Amino acid sequence: MKLPGFLHNWLTRHAQVSLNSLGRLYRSPFASLMTAAVIGIALALPSGLYLLTGNLQRLSTQWDGNTNLSLFLQHSVNAGEARALREKVAAWPEIDSVRLITPEQALEEFRELSGFGETLDALDENPLPAVLAVKPSAEHADAEAAAALLEKLDALPEVELAQLDLQWVKRFNAIVDIVRRAIWVMAALLGLAVLLIIGNTIRLEIQSRREEIEITKLIGATNAFIRRPFLYSGFWYGISGAVLAGVLVELAFVQLHGPVRQLAGLYESGFRLQTLSLPDVFLLLACGATLGLLGAWLAVGRHLADIEPGY
Amino acid sequence: MIRFDNVCKRYPATGDALQNVNFHLAPGAMAFLTGHSGAGKSTVLKLVTLVERTTRGQLFLDGENLSRTPNRRVPMVRRKIGMIFQNHRLLCDRTVFDNVALPLVIAGYRHQDIGRRVRAALDKVGLLGKERALPLTLSGGEQQRVGIARAVVNKPPLLLADEPTGNLDPDLSRDIMHLFEQFNQVGVTVLIASHDLDLISRLPYPQLRLDHGKLVNGGPLAQ
Predict the structure, then answer these.
(1) What CATH architecture is B2-80+156-221?
(2) What does A153-194 look like in DSSP terms, one character per residue?
(3) Is the pLDDT score of A175 beyond 70?
(4) Cβ of B51 and A308 within 8 Å?
(5) Around Cβ A246, how many Cβ atoms within 10 Å?
(6) Which of A211, A214, A216, A311 is the best mutation test for B, with the most CBs of B within 10 A?
(7) The complex's ipTM?
């Protein structure tokens, strides 16, 4: 494909300036690395914590996945009616499966597990109700949908009591939500810090290249021309900081991987920590690049106008 | 090419630097701007390059009224002027080639054109073999030649020089002046601020003499 001349020219110039700026960072590796490291740590903190809470949420939805609702039926409901109700409920789209536990089965189970067999024999009649164990379908397994389903089931006339022991999952999710919000606030503050770090770095760079800026202005450079290398510097600082942040987060999660798997094993769960996905990586890089450009833009806008040539 | 029409320049701190200066430098002409230090030579050059703005009066460059030039057009005006400084003002961390190429890079020339023009300019000032050298490894005279090559590389219609021979011995000064004459012969307008009266009195070009901000002897250029 052949690009039009002016576009090709423009692209070449940008590529040159961009590489020049990168080369400038490369020539003072220690200072550049320090700046990138500060940016990296500032970006790694919120992204790491965000990833961690994301994992916690995923964990809680896994628990939601095992949700079972128990419907304790009225004593007046006989075996035939209970079976009919089971059929009816099982046909709902929200329901995956329904198991009927008759009062006899329940008593038998209780007798076996509790060891109160003889005491139970003394009873004239079975005190236990029939129970329907309801398993919601996957789409209705999360806390909110399960709660709605619970309400709907509780409204059935045959049902004495519908129970869902999800209260603690709800509380847990609420806490994770609060933590996530706090992380956003922290991310905003640290983002601001990154902005200031890059702004200050670029300010120093502008000062150290003051003579060069004056000379180029004198021989006819536009403000855009002078701005460009500094904007690219900011961009590269942001990108390298983001890359470093990604590496830090991955390293931290590698440390956590083994213990988490062990713990999950103890709970007989196949839970695995999720690390940065590809979209996460892109988001991190985009954040770094944006903050870098913005910081450089602010510094350049503020300080470049001060430099007017004289001789 | 340059026309000063009752130009006054007053600095808030030091008072009047130029008072009612009138002169006209025609296209293709060459002239010297003389006077003791502080007489206003630098101010004249600063007004032409829009480093400073006139306080009163009108200043025309190539037909454009510089008193009315908006700030965003300033770079375009400066691209018409090849500027040569007493202390060269080269970028010390770049090679001779990169220094001379700078005006072309700024103006957005194509890569191939830049190489060709830079070598042509360096050839004219006799420094073709020094492309890869850093300015600080060159002698004072050579550095000034690099400055001149940078000033002429994009073929501006006007050359302004501020004490171009200030730091050079007489032989080198004569060589530099000879270079300016060569550019003038191919049609470039040249204005040189200098107090090297010994040298310029032997050259056949008009002098604009400033004294305390007034043009005391404009010769054929006064209006």
Answers:
(1) 3-Layer(aba) Sandwich (3.40)
(2) HHTSTTEEEEE---HHHHHHHHHHHHHHHHHHHHHHHHHHHH
(3) yes
(4) yes
(5) 21
(6) A311
(7) 0.90
